[in-house]
Amino acid sequence: MQLNLLFGQSDDDCFMCHEDTELKSEINGRSMFINKNVLKNSVHKTVSCAACHKDAGAEDFPHKVNLNDVNCGSCHKVAKDEFFRGIHGQALAMNEAYAPTCKECHGEHTILPPSNPKSLTYKMNIPVLCGKCHKEGAPVARTYNISEHNILDNYSQSIHGRGLFKGGLIVTATCNDCHGNHLVLPHTSPNSTIAVNNIAKTCMKCHARIEDVHTKVIKGELWETEPGAIPACTDCHPPHKINVKNVKSTMSDNACLKCHSRDDLHKVVDGETISLKVNKADLDKYEHKNIACV
């Protein structure tokens, strides 16, 4: 049975009013005009109006003024479940300020597939989409204590951002490649894609066999067997700031000393415990003091 047969009104009934470009809400004055041609090109072109706006499908015509919010989860059940397990859905459930709903990221009547360059979720549009809330000076950035600052500005100057915006490389990493789509978790969650024990796996989605590149400093098997015993990718490559320049010219000794000033940092070779602590005061006495660690 087709969805539109379950409800009293047809799409033609809806467009008798909603094709009027001057139609506005009696509540807030918002335009109620729906472009039929745009809707026919959206991913929901085969879905009737009343399938989403269920309380607009009554036999009484016209429908009531104040309709309920559309429940996208009635069709997109997996996405709904992941969303409400993530930080955005939890914020929405608690009525937190600026918590997004589906339409903030996907749009409403103009939703296009992510493969379409005009889609809000097209690869090259993702940083701008997320940046509406998370860029410097945006509502979320102003309101919440987020550990990362100047996110969009830093990303646009990073190797990933330059690849996307200047090189047009849609294979490069954007926000959702690292943070996820609907199931976005804070880095403090052990299940987060950017948690310290998971970040290598996330980076290796693009940077395959990354352990082979780092064998001079880290034994390869540790990447899989002891992820918490090695530096996370972001310890040396700051998130959102990964630069196109060589790491030798962009990474300071202070970054290394964040770990290597610890008394408990060590490795074990043939049963012998070897300290990996570096005493900065001693280092400054030697003739190589002006040579970077890396």
Quick take:
The protein has 294 residues and is mostly helical. Helices cover 35% and strands 3% of the residues. The N and C termini lie far apart (66 Å).
The strands making up the biggest β-sheet line up spatially as 1-2
Given helix and strand content, the structural type is mainly alpha
What is the H/E order? HHHHHHHHHHHHHHHHHEEH
State the end-to-end CA separation. Answer: 66 Å
Helix content: 25-40%
Strand content: under 5%
Number of beta-strand segments: 2
Overview of the structural elements:
With 294 residues, the chain is mainly alpha-helical. It folds into four domains: 1-68, no CATH class; 73-172, no CATH class; 185-245, no CATH class; 252-294, no CATH class. The chain contains 18 helices and two strands. A two-stranded antiparallel ribbon has the order 1-2. Strand 1 (266-269) and strand 2 form a beta hairpin. Helix 4 crosses helix 5 (87-93) and helix 9 (151-157) crosses helix 10. The longest helix is centred in the first third of the chain and has 9 residues, at 77-85. Residues 1-7 have low confidence and may be disordered.
Write the layout of secondary structure elements.
Elements lengths: L10 H8 L17 H5 L8 H4 L24 H9 L1 H7 L8 H5 L19 H9 L4 H5 L7 H7 L1 H7 L9 H5 L19 H5 L6 H4 L8 H4 L7 H4 L10 H4 L2 H8 L5 E4 L2 E4 L4 H4 L11
Antiparallel strand pairs: 1-2
Fill in the keyword field for this structure.
two-stranded antiparallel ribbon, mainly alpha, 294 residues
